[in-house]
Amino acid sequence: MLQIQFPARIMKSFFSMSSPPTSSVAFSTLQELSANHRGLAKVMLKKGKTQLFKDGSPMVYSGAVDRIIGRPPPKTGDVVLVADGSEKPIGWGLYNSASMFCVRLMQLEDEVMRDSSCALDMEKLLNRRLDDAMNLRRSLGLPSADTNAYRLVNSEGDRLSGLIVDVFGDIAVVASSAAWVEKYRPEIESCVGRISGVTYINWRPSIDILKEEGLDVSNLMNFKSCSHVEKVEVIENGIFYSVSLEGQKTGFYADQRENRRLVHSISKGWRVLDVCCYSGGFALNAAAGCADHVIGLDSSLAALELAEENVHLNNLDPGRISFLKEDAAEFMKMAASKNEMWDLVILDPPKLAPRKKVLQNASGMYRSLNSLAMQITKRGGLLMTCSCSGAMTQSGLFLRTLQGAATMAGRKLTVLRHAGAACDHPIDPSYPEGAYLTNYLLRVL
Q: How far apart are CA 140 and CA 137, in angstroms?
């Protein structure tokens, strides 16, 4: 066998390039940078708690903190170092003195080693993360000629925990659910304002969550960046929508985009029922997909007015699509008693389990609603059923709940598809709590 001998100096050079940096070099990076930031506090983690955050979990909960070094102590929104028990920094983040989430990590030590240009500088990091988020959406084909409603920043999925930005045409809606987001509002608005095509910014603080963050929320709603704009017209997969900027969440559920497209593709010739339809997203797609007849239900008059407006925007035949103000459970009970059946039923109720402690009660509600939906789905027909409750999705119990609903209804299920939010809603696997939407397409027998 032919053997090749390399000069010793080449081998030495090769190994020096390929060897990973030692921990002592990593330690010196943030430590040296922090020397230029007088008064920078250090949050010390308890023994055994470090690896979780080194692996990428962005939320340092108060129970993982051993002590805080620094005088005076840090204030909410301050940049702090996060360190292991030997005081070696593992990263840096933003402190909160009142929240159960003591620190939201923004950068880890190994990232700072590769590029220290944004280290300990939230304004520079915001610009970097917004650029990264925009580049990702462009690689996914967003925005496009037939879709200009999308999520630009998805909190932990885009490594900006507590910040959501949805873009609807020329308006960016910023949903704030962390104290640091409110502190850095001017910097965030500046970054978002640089996005091509964005003319207005609408700021929507999540009041209940921000209360838990320890903020005085009395003045948060006094100013909005584009208060004179109430509605905006957007397009998604070729279908037009009127979006109310005072509506639910950020005004439009872009997370269901790919699931709505599926409904469009399978509805031809079918009778379709869209339960909890909001502004008619699934119903409009079914009608545009040549369904024979579509009914949308919702208990909100404001939502149904938007849905009717969207029918006219898309020049759909009002004889084939209609919307009713009804309680979902009562309508389905009445329909079942009359033996009314649909080829496709879509059930997308509001969040029934906002927290784990109510999951058991919520499971019962999901089971009851789905049992009713199965009773009015013709045998061999399809049920698309959803849960937007993070507690339900993360528990993994939704399919078992659906099986229980099938038993109640005397039906048999086959799972055809299991999906979540659209691809512009990325999830960080080190923070599975970011997953909230579950969508099942079921065959009901």
A: 5
Q: Among all residues, which ones are annotated catalytic? A: 388
Buried b (16+ CB within 10 A) or exposed e, 429-439: eebeebbbbbb
Same structural domain for residues 60 and 71?
yes
Strand 163-168 to strand 149-154: parallel, antiparallel, or no bridges (unpaired)?
Answer: antiparallel
Alpha-carbon distance 315 to 424, whole Å? Answer: 29
Alpha-carbon gap, residue 359 to 149, rounded angstroms: 32
- Rounded to 10 degrees, the C-alpha dihedral 301/237/188/164 comes to 60
Kindly report whether the peptide bond that precedes residue 429 is cis, defined as omega within 30 degrees of 0: no
Contacts of 197 (CB under 8 A, 6+ apart): 143, 148, 167, 169, 170
- Domain presence at residue 14: no
C-alpha 18/C-alpha 431 separation (Å) is 31
Total-model pTM = 0.89
Look up the domain containing 48 and give its range. 21-120
> DSSP string spanning 409-439?
HT--EEEEEEE-S-TTS---TT-GGG---EE
Q: What share of the chain is helix, strand, coil (3-state, %, to 5)?
A: 35, 25, 35
Q: Which residues pair with 344 in a beta bridge?
A: 272, 382
Residues 84 and 169 in one domain: no
Tens digits of per-residue pLDDT, 167-197? 999 999 999 999 999 999 999 999 999 998 9
